[in-house]
Protein: LysE family transporter
Organism: Companilactobacillus farciminis
Amino acid sequence: MNFFLQGLTMGIAYDAPIGLANLFVINSALTQSRRKSLLTAIIIIIFDVSLAFACFFGIGAIMKKFEWLQLIILLVGSLIVIYMGINLLRSQTTDISAEATTEMTLFKTISSAFVVIWFNPQAIIDGSMMLGAFQVTLPSYSHPIFIAGVGIASALWFILLSIIVSKFKDKFNAKVLRIINLVCGFIIILYGGKLFWNFITLLLA
């Protein structure tokens, strides 16, 4: 039980800081129907948990070993993230009712969630340092229990985030939602710019 609780608290610490995944879930909850926003949260959870597993078992070490892999992920990831941010800035919101919002296709939701989670090399390396370092301190028999706690923390975090934002989104009018979109868009573009700068730095190193 102790190992499970350690995984649960580590998972919350891993997911709670504001990042692309949280912004993606928040924006979906504000602009999509409750059903679609929950589906988006579940898709994010699947990719987030798969990344946590990969970090726990050492994918960060592989990325550090193969510099070309880092370069590819940094370049492609930065460009796609910037494109997502620009789309948010360009989006026009006149009505935030479930009937008026434009639902994202399932393919677009899955592909965008995949990019948000897996095309952020910094998140992969940071996650590997956090979870990988913890793995070294744990006995091997506790690994499944610990990583299960991390996975459940991810599920609880993103589902609760989606439900809470969806529940209170009616408090926002179209103007407020537009401002939120602009803020999220700018933050996402900054994330993309940081990734691209990391690509340039690594390329010139």
In short: Confidence is low (pLDDT under 50) at residues 94-101.
